[in-house]
Amino acid sequence: MPKVLVIYAHPETAKGSSTRELYKHFINSYSKKNPNDEIIVHNVSEYMPFPLKRIAVSIYNKTLAKSELNADEERFSEARQKWIDEFVDADKYVFVNPMYNLFLPTEMKSYIDMVMQAHTTFHYDQNGFYVGDLKNKKAIHLQCSGGKYHCSASDPDPKIQDLADQYLQTMLHVMGIDDYTSVFAEGMDQDPVNAIEILDNAYIKAENAGQNF
């Protein structure tokens, strides 16, 4: 049974969310096509337990020095390892987020920092280059943004880019995941008159992506 890991980065609020709706259109379509797949969902905006902080750095340094961890470090390391193992074991990845200031939400970036583990999700070859260890897997990125970032012909400032999607695709490539697609709902704030049409078109793209993922 294929295992689908959803990393969702958006606070749960009573107010409607285009990010949430984009995800619903995708996952409902996917589930209809693949009813037996196991789907695991983590909203890292609500619960991101193992950010890269002092205890994580201490564990890293002690591991390099082959020093013994204290009790708190042992608990932290074991619990974090479960999340890393879950990532490695997954067959497909769904990343869902709104764009925040041209980038990913902090919690999703923190999640990527956690699973980017040398000798687990990637390693270095004899020349010091990255080699991804996660093969035959696929990923999709669902992202909403108020501005438009993927219509280069009419972009007045080429320096204003979607750094979030570029970064996510690059990090997954480092880990060996090159079967990567994106679906964007963008420009609703920039073009509010056509916001409903923009979202409807994005939802259709998400549903089609769900059928083919």
UniProtKB/TrEMBL annotation:
Locate the residues binding FMN: M99, Y100, N101, L102
Q: Which organism is it from?
A: Companilactobacillus nuruki
Functional description taken from the UniProt entry: Quinone reductase that provides resistance to thiol-specific stress caused by electrophilic quinones.
Q: What is this protein called?
A: FMN dependent NADH:quinone oxidoreductase
Cite the GO molecular-function annotations of the record.
electron transfer activity; FMN binding; oxidoreductase activity, acting on NAD(P)H as acceptor; oxidoreductase activity, acting on NAD(P)H, quinone or similar compound as acceptor
Q: Which Pfam families would you find in this protein's record?
A: Flavodoxin_2
Highest taxon in the source lineage: Bacteria
UniProt keyword Cytoplasm, yes or no? no
Manner of cofactor binding, per the entry note: Binds 1 FMN per subunit.
Catalytic reactions on record: N,N-dimethyl-1,4-phenylenediamine + anthranilate + 2 NAD(+) = 2-(4-dimethylaminophenyl)diazenylbenzoate + 2 NADH + 2 H(+); 2 a quinone + NADH + H(+) = 2 a 1,4-benzosemiquinone + NAD(+)
Gene3D superfamilies, alphabetically? 3.40.50.360
UniProt keywords, alphabetically: Flavoprotein, FMN, NAD, Oxidoreductase
| E.C. code | 1.6.5.-, 1.7.1.17
List cofactor names only: FMN
The Swiss-Prot or TrEMBL record describes its family as follows: Belongs to the azoreductase type 1 family.
What assembly does the database describe for this protein? Answer: Homodimer.
**Gene for this protein?**
azoR
Top class in the EC scheme: oxidoreductase
TM helices/strands, residue ranges: none
